[in-house]
Description:
single chain, 5 helices
Amino acid sequence: MIKHTRPCYGLGDLFTEITEEFNKYSLDNNLDIQLKLNLFSNKNITYVIGSYTSYLEIALGKKTEQYDIYVYDSFDNRNIVHYLVDLKDILGKESQIYLSKDMYKLSTYFNQWPGL
């Protein structure tokens, strides 16, 4: 079984629902993948401006395999872009047609596309 773990900050109800729906879909379709959500919020970490960004930088800098998927605010692109793969190299230009121009602008940083 493939287990993907992802850390994220805030919007717990939304990410919990997405995680539950994905796991149900995976089970129904025999994908043998389980998604586990690690949610960071003001309820389980001390909130300091930039603390989540700092956590991302530390985790990505260590090249830890603890998490497979990272959910982050595009505001953090400038701090973590050099740790991430440029999705243009993986997904190709044709994938960009699914993003609005505004969404693409939010998802890119200095001509790199580190996230969706």
